[in-house]
Amino acid sequence: MHAVDVVAMLALLQYLVFGSLVGKARGRYGVKAPAVTGAEGFERVYRVQMNTLELLVPLLPALYGAARYWPQAYVAAAGGVYLVGRVLYYRAYVSEPSSRGLGFVLSIAPVMTLVIATLVPALLGKPLLVA
Amino acid sequence: MHAVDVVAMLALLQYLVFGSLVGKARGRYGVKAPAVTGAEGFERVYRVQMNTLELLVPLLPALYGAARYWPQAYVAAAGGVYLVGRVLYYRAYVSEPSSRGLGFVLSIAPVMTLVIATLVPALLGKPLLVA
Amino acid sequence: MHAVDVVAMLALLQYLVFGSLVGKARGRYGVKAPAVTGAEGFERVYRVQMNTLELLVPLLPALYGAARYWPQAYVAAAGGVYLVGRVLYYRAYVSEPSSRGLGFVLSIAPVMTLVIATLVPALLGKPLLVA
């Protein structure tokens, strides 16, 4: 198993699922494209997708960046925490936006960790691991 | 020719063109930054750019991910379908948002395909192709 | 030092800082999630983050793409211009949105340059540099 690829693709699939939930919420709350406001219930689902997009953009390069310097298992584990964090974030945001803190922390902390875990060895010129 | 790099960069250029069309639509419909609402015509062009952003985020890692397991020509062909799908999506959305279905399907299907085409061999531990 | 990784991770960190400024602006201007409108001061900070997201999506693949064809120092230098451009863009947008032109040009020009710098040698089949 190529654990980093697996985690990366699961993060993309999870995001695509959030996207399909936005599509369903359009129908359910009667919010027609191009509008993205007008019903609180729709906006919550939409904000989960947008926030996930906002985190995926740094997650993916940091995941593959860290995998060039650290063992694959550690990098994949950080990605696993992110995946769980996003599920908690989705559940919390949809039921009560102000309770989304834990899910947010569990999804942004791995992103920050992976960025730093790439930046520091890159600055120090640590040798690259062979893929 | 490095077909996957070519398709990836064409997808980025296409997206940058959509972005420049949003800039023009700001002037044409009198929507001043930081507003992103206020004129339906502007919002349509803006939503095309946003939706393209939403798809590019999974497309790029999945394109390069799939290229580690499959022949470059197949991966590039999936990217080519995406590029055509986006053109159809843009045309349809600007003229009538509710007709955007075909363009959307033609652009999300290659993304889904490439994600799965990376996930499955990564899970099975299929050997990586040499770049 | 692995200059391209360093620049890439600094671009991600800069973006995460912009994200945290959006969080602070929510409190300061009293804009509660899921709303993203309602106070001009909040919207300016939010638009900086969104515009940075919109540029990061092409920047990262183009940075790593160009690094496969060109010396690392040139590619990292283009990334450095982007980083400075984003700082100018943030300062300008927050004080007066209509003055954001210079920062925008300095951040989009390196992105365009890197996309073209990947596309052209990929089309011509220029040999890949060893990482």
Overall description:
The structure is a homotrimer of 131-residue chains. Chain A contains 4 helices and no strands. Chain A has a single domain, classed as Membrane associated eicosanoid/glutathione metabolism-like domain (Four Helix Bundle (Hemerythrin (Met), subunit A)), CATH 1.20.120.550. Chain A has helices spanning 3-29, 40-66, 72-95, 101-124. The model of chain A has no long low-confidence stretch (mean pLDDT 94). With 131 residues, the first copy, chain A, is mainly alpha-helical. Helix content of chain A is 78%, strand content 0%. The longest helix of chain A is centred in the N-terminal third of the chain and has 27 residues, at 3-29. Chain A is elongated, with a radius of gyration of 17 Å.
Reconstruct the topology from this structure.
The structure is a homotrimer of 131-residue chains.
Chain A: H1 3-29, H2 40-66, H3 72-95, H4 101-124
Question: Top keywords for this entry?
Answer:
MAPEG (chains A, B, C), MAPEG-like_dom_sf (chains A, B, C), Four Helix Bundle (Hemerythrin (Met), subunit A), glutathione transferase activity (chains A, B, C), homotrimer, 131 residues, Membr-assoc_MAPEG (chains A, B, C), 4 helices
